[in-house]
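YM 10:42: Spermidine/putrescine transport system permease protein PotB sequence, as discussed on the call
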Amino acid sequence: MRIKKKNQRFHWFMLLPACLFLVVFLLAPLVMMLVLSFRDVDSMMNTLQTYSFSQYMHVFTTDAYVKAIGSTVWVALQTTVICLLMAYPAAYVLVKAPNPRLRAFFYILLVSPLLTSVVIRTFAWIVLLSQNGLINGMLLDLQLIEKPLSMLWNMNAVIIAYVQVMLPFAVLPIATSLTDMDRHLRPASMSLGAGRIRTFFHVTLPLTIPGMVTGAIIVFSLAAGSYITPLLVGGRMQPLLPLSIYQQVMQVYNLPLAAAMSFTLLVCVLVVVSLLSYLLKRWEARMHA
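YM 10:58: structure's back
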């Protein structure tokens, strides 16, 4: 009994530094920002000592901010779906590589973009998509178009850049699920008369749903909260909530309104993540029933 208590104390002692770090640098700033979101401002955007729900009322009664909330969630969902559709075959090839060296090479290709700054990768898309960029230059040289296409400063450019940035975060969880799957299940299914397609939809796909949901949660959370990528390739006029928060902080200096919009975005992300987590639990319960 004493040994068990000592082990528990040791575990708590090992967790203490991480818990203190999260409290000081995550929980405390969130509480401070939550308090700030209820503060009033004067006509000069100076924060007052009074409290009200005026900032949240302003967020949900202003058409531009309501549209930004919907656009942010919609763009994040589109990015998530596209990433999952592209990540599944990539993860399958990654796991089913014929030899370890090729598999390691694929992993290096997958992880190498994560070693590069998001800003640098986003500027690379500007080089590709601008009117005098590589893609327009190639299309003009091939005489497929008569004048350069406008591929920057719109939501399509934002989604393309999002997918390129977020794709590795969708591939890795799916690859983990494929790796953890019992390698005898597919041959057993095919030996019982199921073809490759039926085996995929009845054996492989159901067992990789947890990896897909995990990847969806990561991609959606990152896409909903990103502002560097849409700012650089979409422009500051795009109706996205992170850009509105950036403008309130850096240009208007209305910090309480920015805090209110930040918590609105946080709640939206938590609702979607909670829904995905609930669906995952229902799926796992169904699989183990």
